């Protein structure tokens, strides 16, 4: 997926589209990540100032949601469900193998709603049920 390079001007333009929204902080953070691939450190202060919130409020939302990234994404993104249903069918063992092989590309997630086909993994936005190291490797191609 191709992202735009971060710039304050572009970020402010995006924030302007949310000016009339109620509770815009989460939407603003999601919009920044959608546009730039991650939420740059400068976005916290921009969002706080734009919506008259404290930096602590914005930072709290940013760190609460695991799907929000504060670093540029790697070439591939692998999200592995580690919720209880997937753990029951081997997610923690798969997590170790996947993190050993792919390192920084891997992040933990909590439920893709695919519990009957666990362990569930999302590779570059594509859901994989009954995931294995082999299936994940093939999906990265």
TrEMBL record:
Pfam families found in the cross-reference section:
2Fe-2S_thioredx (PF01257)
Cell inner membrane: is it a keyword of this entry?
no
| Entry GO MF terms | iron-sulfur cluster binding; metal ion binding
Q: Does the keyword Metal-binding apply?
A: yes
SUPFAM superfamilies referenced in this protein's UniProt entry, alphabetically: Thioredoxin-like
Keywords, in A-Z order: Iron, Iron-sulfur, Metal-binding
Q: Which PANTHER family match?
A: NADH-QUINONE OXIDOREDUCTASE, E SUBUNIT, POTENTIAL NAD-REDUCING HYDROGENASE SUBUNIT
Identify this protein by name. Answer: Unannotated protein
Organism from which the protein derives: freshwater metagenome
